[in-house]
Amino acid sequence: MTRTSHTYRPKRSALMRASLITPAHHEAFRQEWEANFNEAMRKCEELQKKGYLVEESLQRGALMESKAKKMAEQLKLLGCEVELIPVAKWAGEKVVFLVYKPGAKPAEAPKPQAPTPAQPSKQITREDIVNAFVKNFTYQSAGTVLTPNVQKFQVEGQMADPRHYAALVDPDAPSSDALVFKVRNARQSTPDAHIINTPKYRNAITRLKAQKKAEFFLFSTSQNKGVRIEYLQKALRSLGDGPLKVYFGGSQLDPIILLRAEPPHLAVVLAPYIDPPQNETITSQEVEQTVPTT
User: Fold this and answer.
1) pTM of the entire structure?
2) Same domain, 282 and 160
3) Is the model's pLDDT at 120 over the cut of 70?
4) 154 shares its domain with 61
5) DSSP string, 159-222
6) Which domain does 31 fall in, by range?
7) Burial class (CB in 10 A: 0-12, 13-18, 19+), 203
8) Burial of 99 (0-12, 13-18, 19+ CB in 10 A)
9) Closest listed residue to residue 227, CA positions, set 184, 204, 261, 257
């Protein structure tokens, strides 16, 4: 399983293995990381307001500054704006987050035209969600690209990710598929929870994941049933911003259903993780309490 953790674990080069790396070094690094992480995330959020692709950048994780500078040079050649945000030091070198903003396309000469009223922001479409799900849940394994089956989605109204942790479902599809039926049936009932899916909400998950070294997200503490944070974040990014209805059922074995409350009413169904270690979990309540209100 590919892990997208923002708790940085430095790799030892041959030179570093030859030097004396003691538990005290690791503890000092951990303390510096935790002391600086919130300020680094604050800077990331400020840059996000300016158009930087913070979520995409954070999925890459932290980098040694020397590697980050090489990547920054390549991005600048493509016209991107790049910022390096330091978090800590390891073996005398800074460990940083690299965030970037795509460069603007060359402006064309304006054509004379009559003033037009302001256009509403672009609405998320079914195609947007399908494309985002395919992008977020495509993997490379042993040189082979594994990708969700879009044709199956068009025919059956659902497609699973290649690792079978998640599936995109259209409850309005004219299909007798069991998963489509499950989502269709769930939406007739009262949701177990609600989420306002925004970049701030997803960043709050990222922040708590790093602070608590968590791997799992609990919707229901009474059932002690969660999902892997990696796949939850992929699901949230796939569904796009907006309110979500959450259904997690009455049994530990029931899947987690995230259903868009606004059109298009597509859903992502996530496989539950039963009884995750308590010291590796964060809860929906914890996340909501840390989401910035401004």
Assistant:
1) 0.67
2) yes
3) no
4) no
5) EE-TTSSEEEE-TTSS---HHHHHHHHHTTS--SEEEEE-HHHHHHHHHHHHHHT--EEEEETT
6) 17-101
7) buried
8) buried
9) 257
